[in-house]
Specification:
The structure holds 2 protein chains of 2 kinds. Chain A has 2 domains: 163 residues, 3-Layer(aba) Sandwich (Rossmann fold), CATH 3.40.50; 133 residues, 3-Layer(aba) Sandwich (Rossmann fold), CATH 3.40.50.2300. Helices cover 41% and strands 20% of the residues of chain A. Chain A is built from 11 helices and 16 strands. In chain A, helix 2 crosses helix 11. Chain A is globular, with a radius of gyration of 22 Å. Chain B has one domain: Orthogonal Bundle (ABC transporter involved in vitamin B12 uptake, BtuC), CATH 1.10.3470. Helix content of chain B is 74%, strand content 1%. A two-stranded antiparallel sheet of chain B has the order 1-2. In chain B, strand 1 and strand 2 form a beta hairpin. The mean pLDDT of chain B is 88. Classes of the chains: A alpha/beta, B mainly alpha.
Chain lengths: 348, 336
């Protein structure tokens, strides 16, 4: 390779990167620790760290426009910043958390891409006095508070109930999950099995398959299920990618109305399938409310109003009062069920 | 006639994969009869189309002893931008959207081509860089937005579902495109040049082949095809966010290698690569249909890759030996 040409290209690449870096907002110094009338500190630097940037679900949970975490922080007079990597992996998320700590964060609101891999980083933050609140996905060993979208039990049991209402209380059903290692998925599936045993002994869970939150894989596993179990009456997919892919497979005259589908989905992605009758009902929490609540919890904790002891309560703005439960966990509420009658009211 | 010998070798390679495919389908169908019903076959064919298209572009690049790692990112960018044309433009027509996807892919391919052929930087490095750059641009543009099925017209979402006599339209269209690609690579001088370049870049340069121009064209074609595949991807899945197509490059390279294309260039064909894509899609679906734990999926995938490469080596060695024998036994023939 021509060395001069290579040097040119290298120079070009370096200057392009430098130009891009110059465009990003620099770290601005600021002091923290003011106090407002509600007893909450203002001017706190709060970093919101979703599993992944560019994921529509977290964009709704975090952004100011949708009334998410940053909206709550702005309303409280804090300085809120969303930061993370672009892949939902610890190796992508950790550098963003490190950078937030070194920029002098007072609180971190984190959705953990891995329940243990983030711990060394989060523990060192807590040792420095940074408040660590997890939301959406927990890292139980290394946080001050966890804001849970809905109790695992409520999600597991309500999805089984939704499906049972559609298929009657007998027949074969299957689950299309995300990754086999996903903690929350497995917890939900555990409660689904419990609920089936307890309330619907004639419904048989014939298979649990894993679509890895990838549209192609989710489509393949759904198709595989339909071929393997020709008498399948229903599918539960407790993951937004899985349910959208499964809905696209079922969206044909052959399966519509014959195989019922429910699970966790976003109203925007599922609108088409609800309007054409492929899906009758599915559920989710409001991600913006989840982010909003997590931001309030973080500010309350950083202001010394919460210590994580069970039974403590606090007010989270428009959402009202919440109480800390066992395991330093705050639950947003029961999941929201979407059907053809209410789906058009939601945009996320 | 040396042409006959080469054709026979080519036939051996492609028939090898057909045999593997047939055995696999037979075994699966004997365990689970429903594997061979129309709906499942249609599904596997549609599932293959995106990968078969990507494999076509990748084969052209790999034959010339290069590699294009940026196709997954190109697919993602094209899928989002082309599908978002439907939003707020009720007048956007389907052919126009396919054209836009092709154009976006072509732009990415041209960038790769300029850097590899013009800058003479190894393609592994260039396309590794553009893999990240194109995905980065995709994330910058898309942010947290997404295209949802509700915003796409029914005529667009219907494309992967339409069938003619039980065969999906898209599978026929992609087969035709692959046929054209195969014909081009076998017949046209510029196509044959790619094999010569892949066999020995130095020799190709010495005999005066336009190496830079041919490699540039191969990358442009690979990009354009990936752009087209992106539109098809959007029609197939309906939901597009910034992660569409992540990791596809390695699956496509797997398909290409399993299909008998030598990873160091110079031999193999697009029909084999497309069959490789079909085999891999069949395997994935079969594992689910059989109810084999998906934990085995990746291990089996890797094992098949090893088998394919080993077979490729063995056939290559036999071919060399056969050529050597001919040379010593027969008097040289005139130019064919």
């Amino acid at each position: 390779m021509n060395p001069r040409r290579a040097a040119w290209l290298a120079a070009l690449a370096v200057s392009a990167v430098a130009a891009l870096a110059a465009c990003s907002p620099g770290a601005s110094g600021g002091s923290s620790g003011g106090s407002s009338s509600g007893g909450l500190k203002t001017g706190l630097k709060v970093y919101v760290v979703p599993k992944q940037l560019g994921n529509p679900y977290f964009t709704v949970a975090d952004s100011a426009k949708t009334g998410g975490a940053i909206a709550a922080l702005n309303a409280l007079g804090e300085s809120g910043t969303e930061t993370s990597g672009t892949a939902a992996t610890p190796s992508s998320q950790i550098p963003a958390i490190q950078a937030a700590i070194s920029k002098g964060a007072n609180a971190l609101v984190v959705s953990a891409s891995d329940s243990s891999a983030l711990c060394p980083t989060l523990t060192s933050a807590m040792r420095r006095g940074v408040t660590v609140v997890t939301y959406d996905s927990d890292a139980p060993a290394c946080r001050d508070l966890f804001v849970n979208q809905a109790s695992s039990k409520a999600i597991g049991t309500s999805e089984v109930d939704l499906l049972a209402k559609e298929i009657g209380d007998s027949g074969q059903i299957a689950i299309v999950s995300a990754a086999a290692s996903a903690t929350n998925q497995n917890a939900w599936i555990g409660y689904m099995k419990q609920e089936l045993k307890k309330k619907y002994p004639k419904i048989r869970l014939v298979s649990t398959v894993y679509g890895n939150d990838d549209p192609t894989t989710s489509t393949q596993v759904t198709q595989g299920l339909l071929e393997q179990y020709p008498h399948l009456k229903g599918i539960i997919s407790p993951t937004t990618v899985g349910i959208a892919a499964a809905a696209a497979v079922l969206d044909s005259p052959k399966y519509r109305g014959k195989v019922q589908l429910t699970g966790l989905g976003t109203p925007d992605e599922m609108k088409k399938f609800v309007s054409d009758g492929t899906v009758k009902a599915f559920e989710l929490w409001n991600p913006a409310d989840l982010g909003y609540l997590a931001a309030y919890a973080a500010v309350d904790y950083a202001s010394g109003k919460l210590s994580g002891a069970a039974g403590q309560s606090f007010t989270a703005g428009k959402l009202g009062r919440f109480t800390v439960g066992p395991d330093k966990t705050i639950v947003l509420g029961p999941p929201l069920v979407f059907t053809s009658s209410n789906i058009s009211k939601y945009h996320f | 006639m040396p042409g006959g010998l080469a054709a026979r070798a080519l036939r051996i390679r492609e028939s090898g994969i057909v045999v593997v495919l047939a055995v696999f389908v037979a075994v699966t169908a004997s365990v689970q009869h429903r594997f061979l019903n129309a709906a499942n076959i249609q599904f596997v064919l549609v599932d293959t189309t995106v990968f078969a298209l990507l494999a076509l572009g990748e084969t052209m690049v790999v034959i010339s002893r290069n590699v294009d790692l940026s196709i997954g990112s190109t697919l993602g960018l094209s899928a989002y931008l082309s599908a978002s044309l439907f939003q707020g433009h009720s007048g956007a027509v389907v052919p126009l959207v396919f054209g836009a996807g092709l154009g976006i892919g072509l732009a990415c391919g041209l960038a790769n081509g300029v850097l590899v052929a013009g800058g003479r930087v190894p393609s592994l490095v260039v396309t590794l860089a553009t893999l990240y750059i194109i995905r980065g641009i995709d994330i910058l543009i898309v942010g947290g937005k997404e295209v949802t099925a509700a915003s796409l017209p029914a005529s667009f979402l219907q494309i992967p579902k339409a069938t003619v006599g039980g065969v999906p339209d898209v599978a026929i269209a992609v087969a035709v495109v692959i046929g054209i690609g195969a014909y081009y690579l076998r017949t046209f001088r510029s196509g044959r040049d790619l094999y010569a370049i892949g066999s020995s870049p130095q020799a190709a340069r010495l005999v005066g082949l336009p190496v830079g121009r041919r490699v540039f064209t191969a990358f442009a074609a690979s990009g354009a095809i990936a752009g087209l595949a992106g539109v098809l991807w959007a029609a197939q899945y309906g939901t597009v966010n910034s992660s569409a197509g992540t990791g596809y490059e390695l699956q496509v390279i797997s398909a290409v290698v399993v299909g008998g294309v030598a990873i160091f260039g110079g031999s193999g064909g697009v029909v084999g690569a497309a069959l490789g894509a079909l085999l891999l899609a069949t395997i994935s679906t079969a594992l689910y249909v059989l109810g084999i734990s998906p934990f085995w999926d990746q291990a089996i995938w890797g094992f098949l890759l090893l088998v394919a490469i080993t077979l490729d080596q063995a056939i290559g060695a036999r071919l060399t030996a056969a050529l050597r024998r001919r040379r010593t036994r027969e008097p040289p023939e005139g130019p064919s």
